[in-house]
Design brief:
The chain is of the alpha/beta class and about 200 residues long. The protein has a single domain (about 5-25, about 35-190), classed as 3-Layer(aba) Sandwich (Rossmann fold). The protein has helices at about 35-45, 45-50, 60-70, 80-95, 110-115, 115-120, 135-145; strands at about 5-10, 20-25, 50-55, 75-80, 100-105, 125-130, 155-160, 170-180, 185-190. The strands form 2 sheets. The protein has a 7-stranded mixed beta sheet. Strands 1-2 form a two-stranded antiparallel ribbon. Helix 4 (about 80-95) links the parallel strand 4 (about 75-80) and strand 5. The chain is globular, with a radius of gyration of 16 Å.
Length: about 200
């Protein structure tokens, strides 16, 4: 893939601050804005340190690599797009991150979740940035609302401000939201599994 076919972003803070990350130039993949990353990870400081982070719809890994840069012990990246996964692997190699700290799951997110993978991963934080204008956010809410095994993870959903409603998802508790332009990040926990 030539340089003109790629986008670039950078790690915002931490041990890998300033490292360039490459993304496919694909309209279905949206690297999270730098100010969103900064705000989210500043709010997660204590939870990220030595924790396990899951990056759903990881694309080329910007959020998960940011988590590693800021002290996460391990990150699981889940992405179905083959070109994004190639960029993700390139980004991990360029940052010197090996399989001891990062696992790449080349899979559709809902298939990954329905396989029960989160039960063994036991993440501290799960970040989901599904494609806008799809049913994926609703499917995620349905899944997490009905999880039957203990899962004490903080869920963060990045979505359009006007599309996420917690109505009807009785298994979830909304803690707070933060707005960034037309996007919103919602902080959610499973009922009974407080932060």
């Amino acid at each position: 893939m030539g340089a003109k076919q790629r986008l670039e972003t950078r790690v915002v803070a931490g041990a890998l601050k300033g490292r360039v990350l490459v993304y496919p130039r694909d309209p279905s993949l949206r690297p999270t804005m730098q100010r969103t990353k900064t705000s989210v990870f500043d709010s997660l400081r204590d939870r990220i340190q030595n924790g396990v982070f899951v990056d759903l719809y990881a694309a080329a890994g910007g959020m998960g690599i940011e988590a590693l840069s800021r002290g996460a012990a391990r990150v699981h990246f889940v992405e179905a797009n083959g070109e994004a996964v190639r960029c993700l692997r390139e980004n991990l190699a360029g940052c010197g991150i090996g399989p001891d700290r990062a696992a790449v799951h080349h899979a559709a997110v809902m298939e990954f979740l329905l396989s029960g993978a989160l039960r063994s991963i036991d993440p501290d934080v799960t970040y989901a940035d599904p494609p806008y204008d799809t049913e994926e956010t609703r499917l995620l809410l349905e899944f997490f609302s009905s999880v039957e095994y203990p899962l004490k993870t903080l869920l963060l959903f990045e979505h359009r401000k006007d599309v996420l409603s917690m109505d009807g998802f009785d298994g979830l508790v909304s803690l707070k939201t933060r707005d960034f332009g037309q996007s919103r990040v919602s902080y959610v926990v499973l009922k009974g599994d407080g932060p």
